[in-house]
Amino acid sequence: MGVRSEKRFCMSRSNAILLLVVFCVAGCFSSRYKEKPWTEARWKESIRENEERLKPEEQRQTGGTFAFVDKAAKKITDVVVGLYNYITGNTAFNAAKDMLDPSFPDRRRAAVVYLSKRDFGRQEPYVKYYAEMARTDDDHTVRAMAIRSLNRSRRKSDTALFIATLGDEHAIVRLEAAKALANIPDEAAMAPLIKHLQERVELRIKTQQFIKDETTDVRVACADALRCHRNVEAAQALVGVLRDRDFAVSWQARESLKLMTGKDHRFDQQA
Description:
The protein has 271 residues and is mainly alpha-helical. It contains 14 helices and two strands. The chain has a domain at 170-271. 66% of the residues lie in helices and 4% in strands. The protein is globular and about 65 Å long.
């Protein structure tokens, strides 16, 4: 056997060994992963988890076996963090000033993040400022963050605002609006959510209308939000995307249908 023939033989043998190893590893993972059957017990558990998800943040924090321990640890942490923030100047007073700074959108956005992480920042009067910023701020990242803060506050009075911003020209704003409507359901949101669940969506930008491709993230968030609308129209919309070419959308539609109906037909639209 020549030198070249010997090299080719060695390379082909090493490739064969590598391919065999890949198949063995893939086989191990595939045999290890087996999807659990969708049972009535799992359905009831998912319903409880969904009910917990819809609660305001302060109510979610008070529940649980170790709620007392968590609350005590949080108080200690708040004291330490508060002392550090006082020394560094990263205070609620300065954040409130930055939130109203018309010149620097980065400061406004950072201020909203800072305040919405604190209990007092998810109450009046801060939530009123978030709502106004979500409606009128020139910077779309600030609008998105303001909507996220209202979402954390579970402000039911702002669902009309979420529905309106679901038609924003910037996808990040539409995404936060859809996420908010997933946690704060409103019957009036069903039709807009179905609209943005589709691949193509009509948006009104200032005085003109445009047909654009909706982003995967927004479509997934809409499929998630529709789980709260247990009726035929919402279910049909979700069934319609079970075989979508974007698997993330199909997967979320399946999850929402499982929660709505208590049954799992996987991706079988006919079933």
